[in-house]
Amino acid sequence: MSSLSQKLTAMGLRSLDFNQAEAASLDALLSQLDTEFATLQQQRPNSKGDDLLLGLMTKTHLSALEQLQSTDSQSQAMNHLFVQQVGEEHAARFENQHHGYFILVTRLWMLVLGYLQIDLSYAADHAQSSATLLFADAPTGPSHSRAEQIRRRFMQAYYQGQAAARHNAKNTKQNKPYGSFINRLRDWFQRVFHR
Known about the structure:
Elements: H1 4-10, H2 20-43, H3 49-70, H4 72-86, H5 88-91, H6 97-115, H7 120-134, H8 146-175, H9 181-193
Helix pairs in contact: 2-3, 2-6, 3-6, 6-7, 6-8, 7-8
């Protein structure tokens, strides 16, 4: 059995960019999720690891979303207070802990969605709605707003997962023996007659 961290690494986790604060939070989050994933694997030994991973990451994402939404009014009030007291420029330097956690979890979830080839439009819709939820006052689109930058980071994780899946599939295919003469003949007939 491989750990959640190992699976995410195989999905391209280390190719994503994380700042120092995110990297520290990532290590703590992976430690927690590794424990939960190991427990899930023990409870459901006949389940596929990828299904368990998708389920755990979806649950974690929904939990982070719920936490973000439940603290939204307090966060907005705190931000408004910072803007009044220190000005908008300095207030932007304060990091909302719930925002940071939600962004981190969403990026991991999007990585898994991409690796498992979940529909692009589904992922894009979630990236858009998550970015809009985080920065409702900043539009997404061809701008360089914070919402658009976060949306792009979410989609970057999705595309990284897709690229890792293609790379791993290619390597797996190359490492397998081609098969018997009968299999090669069958494959040839399928290619020729089912175009």
